[in-house]
Amino acid sequence: MRITAYSNYALRTLMYSALKGDELSRVRDIAEAYNISKAHLVKCVHQLGQWGYLDNYRGRNGGFKLAKAPADITVGEILRKTEDGFDLVECFVPATSTCPLTGLCELSLTFKRALAAFLDVVDDVTVEDLIVGRKDLMQALNLMKQEAE
Fold it and tell me: DSSP string of the chain?
């Protein structure tokens, strides 16, 4: 199983915004902090705004900030919105499965249990939990010097 870059960027954007608090964040700053593509982040920020996780402000002095408390956003809910699905193997979709063991195989049942365990874990983790090492994270993202300015 592999989480897409889109999901990763969406979660990183939420973490960055949570670290900034009420101060507006900008796509350029996040792209530089994480050394990732600005173009990919624009789509994430827009979509997170449409879903109600970010308040987006346009214009010269625009940016965005969290629209919800970090403790109210779970990793699981973000992954469910940003991933196309969690079909680990073809037999998870009986309508298109070509496997003759669909419904009989312990392997698919094992994968289903593993997926359920994964989702249980990410459903219990909030964006607030992800920024528990706030000072170290802010230092790693060069936010400490921005706060001092």
Answer: ----HHHHHHHHHHHHHHHHTTS-B-HHHHHHHHT--HHHHHHHHHHHHHTTSEEEE-STT-EEEESS-GGG-BHHHHHHHHSS----SGGGSTTT---TTTTT-HHHHHHHHHHHHHHHHHHT-BHHHHTTTHHHHHHHTTHHHHHH-
